[in-house]
TrEMBL record:
It comes from the Bacteria. Pfam families: PEP-CTERM. Keywords: Signal. Residues 1-21 form the signal peptide. Residues 160-185 form the Ice-binding protein C-terminal domain. This is PEP-CTERM sorting domain-containing protein.
């Protein structure tokens, strides 16, 4: 009986001391998101049932502010349609460093990353999945810069497959984001 009480107490203590992580508060869009975030890590699987935009809303917790947040995502194309380009856009937080992008069935032609967006172009369309960051342990995580942020601050990650007509607008947007980040660094 005493051992059972001791184990119950230990379990309750462990749960009460659990580390806080960035909390996924909501998503918009019709695609499925499975969240695997942990302290210092924003990680999720995104299942694209269609190519509509998906927005993920997060709240920072205290343990996320120890340094940059690692960011990775596994994106699965369940549509059966050509996925030639994909973007992640940020609001309320910035990219601190670019990481890797990998696909088992095609090569990445280009990754254009700025402070607020990353665009991935594939050499041939992706019909299955790709890894953004170190999802499967075979790459480098992307980093999100938490400098100047506090626990309770909110940020948004928007995942989108640009329409062919708007794809030409992504590169200038990334260039502008890069110029704004360079100006911001010069001011600091």
């Amino acid at each position: 009986m005493n051992i059972a009480k001791l184990l119950s107490f230990a379990a309750a203590l462990t749960l009460s001391c659990a580390a806080n992580a960035a909390v996924l508060t909501s998503t918009t869009g019709s695609n499925t998101v499975d969240d695997y975030s942990a302290p210092g890590l924003v990680s999720f699987d995104l299942d694209l049932q269609n190519f509509s935009t998906t927005t993920l809303n997060f709240v920072l917790e205290a343990d996320d502010l120890q340094g940059p947040l690692s960011f990775n995502a596994l994106v699965r194309n369940l549509t059966g349609a050509d996925l030639s380009r994909f973007t992640f856009s940020l609001q309320g937080i910035r990219f601190g460093a670019a990481g890797s992008v990998a696909s088992d069935f095609t090569t990445v032609r280009a990754v254009n990353a700025g402070a607020l967006a990353a665009a991935i172009d594939f050499s041939t369309p992706v019909y299955t999945e790709f890894q953004f960051g170190n999802v499967l342990g075979n790459g480098r995580d992307w980093l999100l810069d938490t400098a100047g942020l506090r626990a309770g601050d909110r940020f948004t990650i928007t995942a989108a497959v640009p329409e062919p007509s708007s794809a030409a607008l992504v590169l200038p947007m990334l260039c502008m984001a890069g110029l704004m980040a360079a100006r911001r660094r010069r001011k600091d």
